[in-house]
Design brief:
The protein is mainly alpha-helical. The chain is built from four helices and no strands. α3 runs antiparallel to α4.
């Protein structure tokens, strides 16, 4: 039973990592998926505003800045996830983590423009 729970937990972690892995992709895909996510978030925020509800974090098109949203996402969600995965799977540390660092650098450069 404990083994099955562990396998289930690891599987969920890997699936979650795959789901949020867009900052580990090439620059053109990084931008594409970031824009796609923000379109979804802003649609949710518009609906929340229309219904008189508090607008969820990252969902207010009037206050969210694309670059800042991606920098925060990478620093507080992506890097910790993939740093941990890189400790378990060395290839992730060697190949994926540098791509994530490149994505962070990209968004930081974009913020200066």
């Amino acid at each position: 039973e404990e083994y099955n729970q562990l396998v289930n937990l690891i599987t969920k972690f890997l699936l979650h990592a795959a789901d949020i892995s867009n900052p580990a992709k090439t620059e053109d895909l990084v931008k594409y998926w970031a824009d796609g996510a923000l379109v979804e978030f802003f649609a949710q925020g518009d609906k929340e505003k229309e219904m008189g509800l508090p607008i969820s974090p990252l969902c207010d098109r009037d206050t969210v800045k694309r670059q800042d949203s991606q920098i925060g996402f990478i620093k507080f969600v992506i890097q910790p996830t993939f740093d941990l995965l890189g400790e378990i799977i060395p290839g992730v540390k060697k190949v994926v983590v540098p791509r994530i660092e490149n994505s962070l650098e990209y968004w930081e450069r974009e913020k200066l423009i």
